[in-house]
């Protein structure tokens, strides 16, 4: 739930031309979700066994969307500060 709310806040920031807030929040969120997914599928989260890679199918699809967002971030080259 918090991941979804943060993604919504990032989208609102980008829409309202708050590049520092929107793009940077979005890229940190995407990288964090990507790493969390990989960790949960390889070594597992603390106290849990690793989960299957393709269950549910929306997991690998989210990896693709997160990679696309980070790619757009790198192409757009948002500023380090809002002007």
Task: Characterize the structure shown.
- This protein has 83 residues and is an all-alpha fold.
- 8% of the residues are buried.
- The protein is 69% helix and 0% strand.
- Helix 1 packs antiparallel against helix 2.
- The chain has one domain.
- It has 3 helices and no strands.
What distance lies between the first and last C-alpha atoms, to the nearest angstrom? Answer: 31 Å
SSE string, helix = H, strand = E? HHH
Can you tell me the number of structural domains? 1
Largest sheet: none
Please provide a brief summary of the model.
This protein has 83 residues and is mostly helical.
Keywords:
83 residues; mainly alpha; 3 helices
What layout of secondary structure does this protein have?
Elements: H1 2-15, H2 19-42, H3 58-76
Helix pairs in contact: 1-2, 2-3
